[in-house]
């Protein structure tokens, strides 16, 4: 292969541009992924342990509230009792406590006054008289409510009775029953809770067989763990004694001995526990290692595909480029009608299609400008033919008006002045753009003549917002619209005709001009035809002022107004027509803000 060939350069460049970024990306991704996994797991586990701690705290609070219901029989415990009714009341309270939490195994009550012990195991009562309180319930140095670490359940010294239920691993909440308001102890209450109450909460916090979880008390004794043989024993692991036990924080995480540890302290009125989760780092990086192996396989396959694709692409790119160069040479020589054939459906083919479209657009623009220039020349010729010495006629009208004043006929003078204004406004063909103020004055002069023609059988009202008077627009826009009323709407016998012109600023920032009257309505079929053709005017592919379309125009006057507005504003104008009820017609012109800006540029 030659080094100067495109094929060789593409192969070498694409191999280097592919292998180096992929290898570097794999290394960075692996490092970042492992680190982000550790951080994410620590954050997620912290949130998880926080929620688990709240659930454990709620469990302990529920047990504490249940145990406090024993104070409802404190008077009986202080005074002692031996009758059946009081025995039943005590049993009812203990039975209620045993059912308050689903995993309570048994409830033990000792009464100091009567030296009587009662044990309710799974709703089965047992009782012994004249015995000492069980040693575990005394809790020397403990608070009035405290929790004993996990242990196997027992019968609390009721040795004369045979246990009816096998021993269960439990933790116990102990309460010293005091004679309120003094601190004299009148009895002891102990509630054994199965460890299943903890496992129901803890099992949702970790993945068994891969992670470990511990619940520890203030002394480091294990309240709950996967290893049943460690329950109740102190935890001597260095990560606990050096990190968690000495930490003043209520929560945190750290990495040690190839494990990530996350802990959350649980504070309750009964005790203070610590929830610890141990996650092996090898488990965290398992997915990252698997992803790295997959990336290596993908890299090998990619190299094979890239080499093959590079050779194919180098061959496919050069031929269309050369063909496109030949097309450009022909266009440069002056041939704008080159038949450009697409090279395919890829990017090069898309470029050639767009190049062909660009050339079609250029040819169409040239043709459009030519036709527009031809139409302008034709209109100028017609205007010259129509002007039979307009200055002479204007001067003649002024002479006749002066004579009318001399003969004391001011009405004739007013009509001649209005006609002179209209002629003066019409014959200045160089003024392509006028203002709404000019158009309004022209309409007023036209109305003045129509009032004399129809003997004041109609009234004319107008309301134009002050800021719109300087709005630029093409000449002779409003007068053809007003003229429709006198051609089609005004009845010969009507004496109460009315025509109104309103101009307001629209909500979109443009202007809305409305001309409405109370004359005859447009027949519905004709109205629908007008609305449809005005919406579609001018037809696609035709010039707006193309005189060859007269047979299809919706209305010569309205079509001329709409076409000139669209040419003036770049196609952003609209004209709507509709009937009013019970009589009348309403025509609305809308000129958007863009139209105003563009027309100012003219």
TrEMBL record:
Sequence ranges assigned to domain HAMP in this UniProt record = 315-367
Which compartment or compartments is the protein found in? Cell membrane
- Native source species: Paenibacillus zeirhizosphaerae
Name of the molecule in the record: Histidine kinase
Report the Gene3D superfamilies cross-referenced here: 6.10.340.10, Histidine kinase-like ATPase, C-terminal domain, PAS domain
Q: Name one GO molecular function term.
A: kinase activity
* TM regions (residue ranges): 12-32, 292-318
Where is this chain primarily localised? membrane
Q: InterPro entries in the record, alphabetically?
A: Bact_2-comp_sensor_kinase (IPR050640), dCache_1 (IPR033479), HAMP_dom (IPR003660), HATPase_C_sf (IPR036890), Sig_transdc_His_kin_internal (IPR010559)
CDD domains tied to this protein:
HAMP
Q: How does it sit in the membrane?
A: Multi-pass membrane protein
């Amino acid at each position: 292969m030659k080094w100067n060939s495109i094929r060789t350069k593409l192969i070498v460049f694409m191999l280097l541009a592919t292998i180096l970024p992929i290898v570097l990306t794999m290394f960075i991704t692996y490092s970042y992924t492992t680190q982000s996994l550790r951080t994410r797991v620590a954050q997620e586990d912290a949130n998880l342990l926080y929620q688990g701690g709240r659930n454990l705290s709620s469990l302990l609070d529920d047990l504490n509230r249940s145990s406090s219901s024993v104070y409802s029989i404190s008077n009986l415990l202080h005074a002692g009792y031996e009758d059946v009714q009081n025995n039943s009341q005590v049993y009812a309270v203990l039975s209620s406590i045993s059912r308050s939490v689903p995993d309570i195994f048994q409830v033990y009550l000792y009464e100091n006054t009567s030296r009587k012990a009662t044990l309710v195991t799974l709703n089965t009562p047992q009782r012994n008289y004249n015995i000492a309180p069980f040693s575990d319930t005394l809790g020397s140095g403990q608070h009035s409510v405290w929790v004993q670490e996990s242990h196997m359940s027992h019968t609390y010294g009721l040795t004369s009775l045979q246990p009816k239920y096998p021993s269960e691993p439990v933790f116990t909440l102990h309460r010293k029953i005091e004679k309120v308001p003094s601190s004299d102890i009148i009895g002891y209450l102990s509630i054994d809770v199965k460890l299943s109450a903890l496992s129901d909460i803890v099992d949702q916090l970790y993945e068994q067989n891969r992670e470990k979880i511990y619940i520890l008390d203030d002394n480091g004794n294990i309240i709950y763990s996967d290893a049943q043989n460690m329950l109740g024993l102190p935890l001597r692991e260095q990560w606990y004694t050096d990190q968690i036990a000495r930490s003043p924080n209520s929560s945190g995480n750290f990495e040690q001995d190839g494990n990530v540890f996350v802990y959350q302290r649980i504070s309750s009125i009964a005790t203070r526990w610590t929830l610890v989760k141990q996650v092996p780092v090898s488990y965290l990086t398992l997915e990252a290692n698997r992803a790295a192996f997959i990336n290596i396989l993908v890299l090998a396959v990619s190299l094979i595909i890239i080499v093959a694709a590079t050779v194919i692409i180098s061959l496919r790119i050069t031929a269309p480029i050369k063909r496109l160069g030949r097309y450009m040479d022909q266009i440069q020589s002056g041939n704008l009608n080159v038949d450009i054939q697409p090279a395919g459906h890829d990017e090069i083919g898309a470029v050639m299609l767009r190049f062909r479209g660009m050339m079609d657009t250029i040819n169409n623009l040239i043709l459009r400008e030519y036709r527009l220039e031809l139409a302008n020349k034709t209109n100028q010729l017609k205007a010259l033919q129509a002007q039979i010495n307009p200055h002479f006629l204007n001067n003649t009208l002024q002479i006749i008006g002066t004579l009318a004043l001399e003969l004391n006929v001011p009405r004739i003078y007013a009509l001649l002045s209005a006609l002179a204004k209209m002629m003066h406004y019409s014959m200045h063909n160089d003024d392509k753009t006028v203002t709404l103020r000019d158009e309004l004055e022209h309409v007023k002069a036209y109305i003045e003549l129509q009032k004399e023609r129809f003997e004041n059988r109609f009234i004319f009202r107008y309301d134009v917002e002050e800021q719109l008077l300087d709005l630029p627009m093409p000449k002779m826009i409003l007068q053809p619209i007003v003229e429709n009323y006198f051609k089609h709407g005004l009845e010969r016998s009507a004496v109460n005709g009315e025509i109104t012109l309103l101009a307001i600023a629209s909500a979109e920032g443009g202007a809305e001009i409305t001309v409405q009257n109370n004359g005859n309505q447009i027949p519905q079929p004709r109205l629908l035809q007008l609305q449809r053709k005005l919406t579609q005017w001018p037809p696609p592919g035709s010039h707006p002022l193309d005189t060859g379309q007269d047979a299809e125009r919706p209305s010569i006057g309205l079509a001329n107004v709409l076409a000139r507005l669209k040419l003036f504003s770049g196609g952003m104008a609209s004209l709507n027509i509709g009937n009013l009820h019970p009589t009348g017609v309403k025509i609305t012109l809308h000129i958007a803000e863009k139209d105003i800006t563009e027309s100012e540029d003219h």
